[in-house]
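DM between two lab members

TW: hey, do you still have the Ppx/GppA phosphatase family entry open?
JB: yeah, one sec
JB: this one, 307 aa:
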Amino acid sequence: MTRVAAVDCGTNALRLLISDDGREVVRLNEIVRLGEGVDATGRISQAALDRTRAVLTRYAEIIRFEGVTAVRMVATSATRDAENKEDFFAMTEEVLGVRAEVISGQEEAELSFRGAILDLERSRGPFCVIDLGGGSTEFVVGGADGEIYGAKSVQMGCVRLTERIMRSDPPTDTEVEIAEEYVAERISEVLAEVPVDKARTFVGVAGTFTTLSALAQGLETYDPAEIHCSELRFDALRVITRELVGSSSAQRASHPVIHPGRADVIAGGAVAVEGIINMVERLETASSIVISEKDILDGIVSILAAS
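TW: and the structure you got?
JB:
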């Protein structure tokens, strides 16, 4: 038996996956907003550290109860940017027993790719996996055999766009226009470095994409089984993103599949998704995106189990 655990702390969410020889045992996702205010202050707030500690303490208890033999924790955009990141790392070592690792955008992209394509038909490759997070978004293009053709992490995420640009509730037309221009600039960086035009299938991972899938399917409750490997057409997706951008955070929070901790930032995520759709349509290589519930966590546990 090889029971391993992966913990991923991003700008918005803290997530846990425990796997036993490839079989999912536990998968949890909690909004802790570690990156709240980091873009403006350069520091992780004490409130954010306290929220993260509380959830990580519960995860550590579950890991011990489940008899996990190996644990890896990674931390991404928020901790790469924060002046006081050592406070966060010391806390993770104290609570979890292992120190979180700050991974590069390149490694984050590669791990996300490995996890995201696990359940997809290999005949649909090459793939472009897009991991839209709170502070950054990773684009990685690769083959069905796992070979990476190119990857790029850009400073474009739902929390970053909300805190930096889309501050009104709901955002003003001017804010949305500025956010769209910002997203277009980040995507131009991707196109300059990554062979996105080689991809036949585009795959969206992380909370913005999975929530959009739940909304598109009209789910009454968030159901990962229904969301995983669902496919969303761009024309239908645009209807939903426009509605989210035009709604207030209270209106978004009233929908049962939108997590209360995501309601105030998902409009920023929606603008990023629209920019991604525009990119793919210009390439004329696809008219839909596949949504995967598997991501960086699955990539980490697959490596842990093999080591």
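TW: got it. The mean pLDDT is 91. The domain at 3-102 is CATH 3.30.420.40 (Nucleotidyltransferase; domain 5).
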